[in-house]
Write a structure and sequence with these properties.
26 helices, 0% strand, PPR_P_subfamily, Pentatricopeptide repeat-containing protein, PPR_rpt, repeat
Length: 461
């Protein structure tokens, strides 16, 4: 019988690249040639290490990944690049493991690799994903020991300040940048403008937009305009929003669908829906026809005006024009139908969703359950509740308590026993609601109480 040809380092890399199962890939990496002579160990390539570490990191198989890194540390034929460790740090950030991300950064020199601002910024981003804001600042203040900050460093920190509402500190960082020879770029201004607009500080946002051109020779991009348009739209200043849009056209800054979607929503909010058709036509002329978000904004506006017929027509139009309605499209209509007491229509649309290529999500169920419960359609609400529990969608605790109280008040004790049995299996009802419900059942019927007790005993088994 012929002996199998040994796997070469190049062949191992090819096999690892093609193997989708990370654990099978790990087995391949650890035993590329099962019958190789111990006197002649396999010589791995840096590419093989990169491939297996990437696969394990994406699958969050971190203990095994660390074993591979230990093996890599002992290699003497090559030195891993800094980008290799950046991938590892990023993976730990996505997994919300800040200590491991920090440890990886600190270990880079032990692999004979020099750290630069690139890995430093990668770590800052990982800490940002983990909401480790204080650690980010402490790390930044001590960074001079290993690297020097660049614009990206400050951009990450300014964004972190915005997330925690420390715009005063964000401003200080911005002022500090030129003093340290680091000049703000369009991302710096975009981040600051975004957080200023999010906090309603529109005058300062517009002042910064002007300063970036006059003082720094940096021109605003689409993201900056999007933040400003959203900000002024929220306060109802549509004239300024449209002037900004016209300014973008004048300066040949591409308008994307998000800009138009913001304006469409603002027009509905201001009761100017008649102007929407002209805006949609402009969208098509500029090569970014209405998408699902655009339609959802229109559906939301129409539903707020109780024009459900027009909202239904938009659902059909979306399907015809290739923008398939998503679950948000249906949830918006179902919610407003429930608010208006049109519960049969809401239920019909809910049941029609799968036929239209969209399945209800947890929000769909919660909205319909709340609407049926508040509309005293208890049997229908109980059916929706059972379906929710079967699919693993938990109802809101407040909704459950309200439903139980309504069943008690309306003396629907048999239905109450059935509902309590279902909720009890999932431990989805609090102690107070149990006490109220059991008290109501006891007062009503000894037989019902025994039936409830039997359900509870079976559920506990």
């Amino acid at each position: 019988m012929a002996t199998a040809k040994p796997v070469s380092p190049y062949r191992l890399s090819s096999l690892l690249r093609g193997e989708k199962d990370p654990r099978l890939a790990l087995g391949l990496f650890l035993n590329p040639n099962q019958h190789a002579s111990p006197e002649k160990p396999f010589r791995y390539s840096l590419l093989s290490y990169d491939l297996i570490v990437t696969k394990l990191a994406r699958a969050k198989i971190f203990p095994e990944m660390e074993l591979i890194l230990q093996k890599l540390r002992d290699e003497t034929d090559f030195t891993p690049k800094e980008s290799f460790f950046c991938h590892v740090i990023t993976s730990y950030g996505r997994a919300r493991q800040p200590d491991e991300a920090m440890r990886t950064f600190e270990s880079i020199p032990s692999f004979r690799c020099q750290r630069t601002v690139r890995s430093f910024n990668t770590l800052l981003n990982a800490l940002l994903k983990c909401a480790e804001y204080e650690r980010m600042m402490d790390f930044f203040h001590n960074m001079d020991k290993c690297v020097y900050p660049d614009a990206c460093t400050y951009n990450i920190l300014i964004n972190a300040c915005g997330k925690v509402g420390r715009l005063d500190y964000a401003r200080n960082l911005f002022v500090e940048m030129p003093k340290r020879g680091v000049f703000p770029n369009v991302v710096t201004f975009g981040t600051l403008v975004y957080w200023l607009c999010e906090n309603g500080m529109l005058e300062e946002a517009f002042r910064l937009k002007n300063e970036m051109v006059t003082d720094y020779r940096v021109h605003p991009n689409g993201h900056i305009y999007a933040s400003l348009i959203k900000g002024v739209s929220l306060v109802g200043d549509l004239n300024k929003a449209f002037r900004l849009k016209d300014e973008m056209v004048r300066d040949r800054i591409q308008l994307d669908a998000s800009i138009y979607n913001t304006l469409v929503n603002a027009l509905f909010q201001a009761g100017r829906k008649d102007e929407v058709s002209g805006l949609l036509e402009e969208m098509r002329e500029n090569g970014c026809g209405p998408d699902t978000v655009t339609y959802n904004a229109m559906i939301n506006g129409l539903c707020r005006e109780k024009d459900f017929g027009a909202a239904y027509k938009l659902l059909d139009e979306m399907a015809e024009k290739g923008s398939r309605p998503d679950v948000i499209s249906f949830n918006v209509i179902i919610r407003e139908l429930c608010k208006e007491g049109k519960l049969n229509e809401a239920n019909d649309l809910f049941e029609d969703m799968p036929r239209r290529g969209c399945h209800p999500d947890v929000v769909s169920y919660r909205v319909l359950f709340d609407g049926l419960s508040e509309g005293l359609q208890f049997e229908e609400a109980a059916l929706i509740l059972d379906e929710m529990l079967f699919k693993g969608y938990p109802p809101r605790g407040s909704s459950v308590n309200s439903f139980v109280d309504s069943l008690c008040k309306e003396q629907r004790h048999e239905l109450l026993v059935r509902v309590l049995s279902s909720l009890g299996k999932g431990n989805l009802i609090d102690t107070d609601a149990w006490v109220r419900a059991i008290s109501a059942v006891c007062d009503s019927s000894k037989a019902l109480f025994l039936d409830l007790l039997d359900h509870l005993i079976k559920g506990a088994q």
